[in-house]
Amino acid sequence: MKHISISLVALAILVSEISMAQNPWDQLSKRPATLGIEQGYMNFKTSNFKVKLLKSSQTLAGLVPLADTGFNYSPEKFLKSRSSDGLYQLGDLNLRLRFKGGEWKKFSSATKRAPVTALPVTDKTLAAASLKPTLPLDIPLAIERSWEQENGVLVLKFKITNSSKSEIEIGSLGIPLIFNNILHDETLDDAHARNVFYDPYIGADAGYLQVTRLSGKGPVLLVLPDGKTPFEAYSPLLDDPSPRGTTFEGFYEWMPLTRAHVESDWKNALPWNKPSSLILKPGDSREYGLKFIIAPDIRGIEQGLRTAGRPVAVGIPGYVIPQDVDAKLFLDYNKTVQSMEVYPVGALTIKKLAVLKSGLKSFQVNGRQWGRSRLTIKYTDGTIQTIHYKVIKPESELVGDFGKFLTTKQWYTDQDDPFKRAPSVMSYDYDTRKIVTEDSRAWIAGLSDEGGAGSWLGALMKQLVSPDHSELLKLEQFVNQTIWGNLQISADSAKYGVKKSLFYYEPSVMPQGTYSANVNYKTWAAWPLKEANSLGRSYNYPHVAAAHWVLYRLARYHQGLVTQRDWKWYLESAYQTGMAMVNLAPHYAQYGQMEGSVFLYILNDLKNEGLIEMADRLEQAMKKRALHWRSLNYPFGSEMPWDSTGQEEVYMWSDYFNFHDKAEVTLNAILGYMPTLPHWGYNGSARRYWDFLYGGKLARVERQLHHYGSGLNAIPVLKAFRNRPDDLYLLRVGYGGLMGSVANITEEGFGPAAFHSFPSTLKIDALSGDYGSNFYGYAVNTATYIVNDPVYGWLVFGGNLAHKGKQIEVQMTTAARSAVFIAPFQVWLTLDAGMINSISFNPEADAITLNLAAADEYTEKAFLHIEGSYKPVSGFNKSKNAYEIPLSNTTTTIILKKN
Questions:
Q1: For 857, which DSSP code?
Q2: Residue 760 has pLDDT above 60, yes or no
Q3: Rounded-to-integer distance, Cα 270 and Cα 761, Å
Q4: Which pLDDT tens digit goes with each residue over 12-44?
Q5: pLDDT of 554-570, one tens digit each?
């Protein structure tokens, strides 16, 4: 299967790349139109929307919010090209059903279009129809659909009646969710103004869909259940022929019933929720429906849910829970909790805490069993809510396992390798448990690009968090033998340039047997030597710069960890790599880079070291790029039509240069595609849907859960929170992305490209791919955050908090234990070396106590940076803009006081 998968990858990439040239949307419009557009429209107005329905099908054509009549949630622009059979519209219905003892049979109102039969309407009904004409003749159900207005709220309802003389089981039911996420033929400005992304909370009766604009501004559409319409699963409409690719993720359906799918095409996956079906006796009916409401903005989503009388859950620090963390869960619903059930049994423990003054119900949640878990809450009114957690090892253990796996299982030592890739940390296939030495995508096996550099980048970034001498011995060999002078040019005019790949496909000049016959190399991605040697892809440079920078940090602030070269060589190499990027790869360098924030960290270190000339040059080069971004409305372009990875660097430089207008635009855009939801897979998961084609094994266009966008976008979001520490929403989103970046690491320590969200799969991808960029986000961003929220009280993200009289005490639980932000004091403490075991303070006083870990063989001193109006009581020397603190053989206690 491995080689079949790789061949499919090549095909998928090829289709994706040529799609714009062939304009598949034009091809789609050549299909026979059957939707009945020529018969005209029906127009209505509710308290929130202008609603446009097609007369023929009574499916939605337009959904315009009254608060912004220039915006349309519906893809009306593509209605004509999407007017043939098989193309889903909002108002369609999918079913699978069977008679007792029979086989499941599929029916859909979208398969074969015919004008529906209009039904009489009441005062609250806008339009109603029998779907019989657009369903197969042998369907044993009568289905009526209505668009209604209940107390001003738009409602879509389906009444399903058993019209046969036998009992029927409906095993699956799906309501297609069709909104304007089609980015085809849109400029970045137009896409941010016109298009939406949507994310599900697959939370049973408490579930909902949030539809946000790409700009992150303006009203948010919320799709809620009407009556008993649980959000049991969120399934892609893969049979819709609308061309999926980099400009279109695809459409999905809200599924209240899933048993038929779980028994068949989803049988190899563990579903998010317990599957259900519906038994209808002859003549019996059942209604399902969805409501459409408006929240004023993204931060107002939860208040919109409260106003609509929906259950609201808030998890702190989120829904990825290390086993040594006391997490909290707050429930806001006007009904009492009747019961709580955990699946698998014992995976979580739930402890009831005191009800808050606001009336919120609070609980302590502890993760006991590694892996996915589901908390099912039943309220006294019968409402069922499910909350989805991922339990991971304590962060220090998880990071340690990750480093060990990379430097053992993925450590490549073949000195006879014709591509000179040894020694190195190579890409890995978790299915076959083998290093990937060949792939039709040259970069995967070529140690470059995100998909090939990912593993070695992760191994080096791990050392920044938790350095290990034995691992560093190997990684120094890799940097000085495989990167320097091979992947990175070490001499002449192209010095510091970075190649696109060490692996290439050039059979005419390579020894016979170099390439396997069962790998399909007949694709554009199988680069020949000339292409592999190209220095023009800027995205490769931050990986190499980060490698040099990490070794600089370890050589500078520790003793004996790095031995092959001195700190200055590594820092200068990091600087020169950044300069080479703008000089040798100027085309793509105009865009924000994945891990581009590393150049800001390098700049800060150049300044701290007094290397002013280099610092000035780097700053000028980066300011030129930032000024270009400032001239654009939405400076988030890349080689893709739309992207979610350049925002990290764009925000960080805009913030640095005080381009606050552009920083705010960037932050809002991030919030538009990075939600907070009571589900570990979606909470803080920055939208990405095509990189399984480029960096995964199972290749398809699919919403990726905690792809590297999570870790990278968490960097600007958490930086923004430190700039405005009263905005808890930012902390929740950013910390969700931070913890999402390590959520998919296996018990053994393997870091995968991402998690597959399709309900037929629901597991990690088997290829290591581009995961290293995700771990970079964790490594440079991991920290503990302490806040005192007016609603939730004292909270901690990345630690355990206790009240001792008036004293607040926090035990750090992050792997690095090297950074803490105390929001009420607006103080940001970071260590270049050393670790913080705990921190304590009296909120009414002006003193902070830090307890630092004991010295070890490689770390004799801590180097403490303080942003904020505090300084140590004891006099310590300042070195490189940090307080230099000698460490003892036991705990070292430092007291900080406000200036």
A1: T
A2: yes
A3: 8
A4: 443 444 344 468 888 898 999 999 999 999 999
A5: 999 999 999 999 999 99
> Please, what sign has the CA dihedral across residues 12, 13, 14, 15?
positive
Region label for 199, one of left (φ > 0), alpha (ψ between -120 and 50) or beta (otherwise): beta
Contact 399, 417 (CB under 8 A): no
**What is the SS3 assignment for 146?**
strand
Contact 52, 72 (CB under 8 A): no
Give the type of residue at 579: M
Give the whole-angstrom CA distance, residue 390 versus residue 799.
17
Rounded CA-CA distance 865/553 in Å is 14
Average the pLDDT over 473-495 and give the result: 97
**pLDDT of residue 611 exceeding 70:** yes
CA 571, chain centre distance (Å) = 31
| Token pair recorded at residue 128 | 């109603």
Beta bridge partners of 755: 705, 764
Helix, strand, coil share (%) of the chain residues, nearest 5: 30, 30, 45
* Beta carbons within 8 Å of 706's beta carbon, 6+ residues apart: 681, 684, 685, 740, 741, 743, 744, 754, 755, 774
846: which 2 tokens? 């002006």
* Gap between the Cα atoms of 822 and 809, Å rounded: 12
Query: What is the pLDDT, as a whole number, of residue 191?
Result: 94
Question: Could you give the domains of the chain?
Answer: 93-307 (no CATH), 312-392 (2.60.40.10), 395-782 (1.50.10), 785-898 (2.60.220)
Q: Are strands 819-822 and 784-789 parallel, antiparallel or unpaired?
A: parallel
SS3 letters across 863-880? EEEEECCEEECCCCEEEC
Whether 78 has a pLDDT exceeding 60, the answer reads yes
Token pair 């529906």 is found at: 116
Which token pair is 684?
């803080």
CA distances from 732 to 127, 331, 594, 648, 890 (A): 41, 16, 22, 17, 35
